[in-house]
Design goal:
By secondary structure, the protein is α+β, with helices and mostly antiparallel strands. The protein contains ten helices and 14 strands. The strands form three sheets. The protein has a seven-stranded antiparallel sheet with strand order 2-6-7-1-5-4-3. Strands 10-9-8-11-12 form a five-stranded mixed sheet, sandwiched between helices. It has a two-stranded antiparallel sheet with strand order 13-14.
Length: 407
């Protein structure tokens, strides 16, 4: 399985200038590729191939006065920018044909130099390296200081340097994990658990444990409101406005990082303790259009379930998602009687058939576990599922919390 390990970078003033130059050159090559393809489409000509674009937009462009500065950055960065454009068009056409899962994608658009997130990628043939002093040596940029929070398990295949909206720099390494090491890290368990996600409590487990919702956004609203008000009063285009914008971005980044760290710690604990996990497939997109939208986004259910999914795949656990229309809150987990819908303010109810007093959320977690086919008393989950697709991230991969603790 391939995962990403992200670490904070601290470039000096000269390296920041070199990175800004590399970001700009990669953006220009991407935009030139989009422009060349759009011109071919409007003129009714076939799309130029990747080889033709590489020759025209990189090799020949470096010899011109208008694009001679492309030679100041690594050629690998420019080639990877072309690959990104090619992948964007392939995904767009696959989405049009219906062969790509997920929401419909639009055609690739021009990148803006004012974009909140900028990145460049170095593959192995770029000859980047890790120095003996622990710095990241990048071609035509230099040896950049890295804040190592853990050791890399194997040699990375590539590294992506990213600048986020808060002005922070990160190095994201692609690592091929070792299945044997993963199996030793998470020994087999005979426990199973059902999880009922909510807003009053972030999660209620079938074991009866209730995990409070941290509500990171709600707790930071006062600070965010003050920073946003200061930003709105600054003159557009001024340096003070840019400083205020960074202040707002850093405040939002702190909220996102804290939420992601909470998700990682909880998901790792559940994966390590249980062989089988059952969750409900919640209609997050629909709930995000209701009056509970801010609370739904603050909880981050989708990100949490995605973490459970890829960690279950990595460590040989079983994750089962049950349908969102399963009447988990209406069914008695003791006798199976469907007692009908209940308002949200009803937190406890008594089954009319067997007389059992139920906590609404705990009862739903038990029903989720039973609906997933995981026995309440003994786990019936398979010990080691078959091979699964790789997950794109691990702790600190995208979103980049400063802690970067292991998942």
């Amino acid at each position: 399985m391939q995962l990403r390990y992200a670490f904070r970078l601290y470039p000096d003033a000269g390296q920041r200038i070199a990175l800004a130059r590399a970001f700009g050159c990669a953006r220009v090559v991407f935009n030139d590729c989009v422009r060349a393809r759009e011109d071919a489409r409007t003129q009714g000509r076939p799309f130029p191939t990747a080889g033709e674009l590489s020759t025209r937009l990189i090799t020949e462009a470096k010899r011109t006065v208008e694009r001679c500065w492309l030679g100041e950055v690594s050629a690998v960065v420019l080639q990877q920018s072309l690959r990104d454009a090619e992948r964007a068009y392939k995904n767009f056409f696959a989405s049009l044909k219906g062969t790509r899962k997920g929401p419909k994608l639009g055609a690739p658009r021009f990148k803006s130099r004012k974009a909140a997130r900028q990145s460049i990628r170095f593959t192995a043939n770029a000859r980047w390296s890790l120095t003996e002093s622990g710095r990241l040596s990048l071609p035509k940029i230099g040896a950049v200081k890295v804040k190592w929070s853990r050791t890399l398990p194997t040699t990375p295949t590539s590294v992506t340097v990213i600048k986020d909206s808060a002005g922070r720099f990160f190095a994201s390494f692609v690592i091929d994990t070792d299945p044997a090491a993963d199996a030793d890290r998470m020994p087999e368990s005979d426990q199973c658990v059902g999880i009922d996600l909510g807003l009053t409590h972030f999660a209620v487990l079938s074991t009866g444990e209730k995990i409070d919702s941290p509500r990171f956004l709600r707790r930071a609203e006062k600070k965010l409101k003050k920073a946003q008000k200061e930003l709105s009063r600054k003159q557009k285009g001024s340096k003070n406005r840019e400083k205020a914008r960074l202040k707002v971005a850093r405040a939002h980044a702190q909220v996102a990082d804290a939420r992601k760290e909470f998700h990682h710690q909880l998901s790792t604990r559940l994966i390590s303790e249980n062989q089988g996990i059952a969750v409900e497939d919640l209609p997050v997109a629909g709930l995000a259009r209701t009056r509970l939208a801010k609370s739904v986004h603050d909880a981050g259910w989708t990100a949490f379930v995605n973490m459970l999914e890829y960690k279950a795949q990595r460590y040989g656990r079983t994750l089962v998602k049950i349908g969102r229309f399963e009447p988990t809150s209406q069914t008695c987990s003791t006798c199976g009687t469907v007692d009908g819908p209940k308002p949200l303010n009803v937190r406890e109810w008594t089954c009319t058939a067997c007389g059992t007093l139920h906590d609404r959320d705990h009862n739903a977690a038990l029903n989720i576990q039973q609906a997933a086919g995981l026995a309440v008393t003994a786990c019936g989950a398979p010990v080691r599922p078959g091979p699964v697709l790789a997950q794109r991230e691990e702790t600190g991969s995208h979103g980049f919390p400063t802690g970067n603790r292991a998942a």
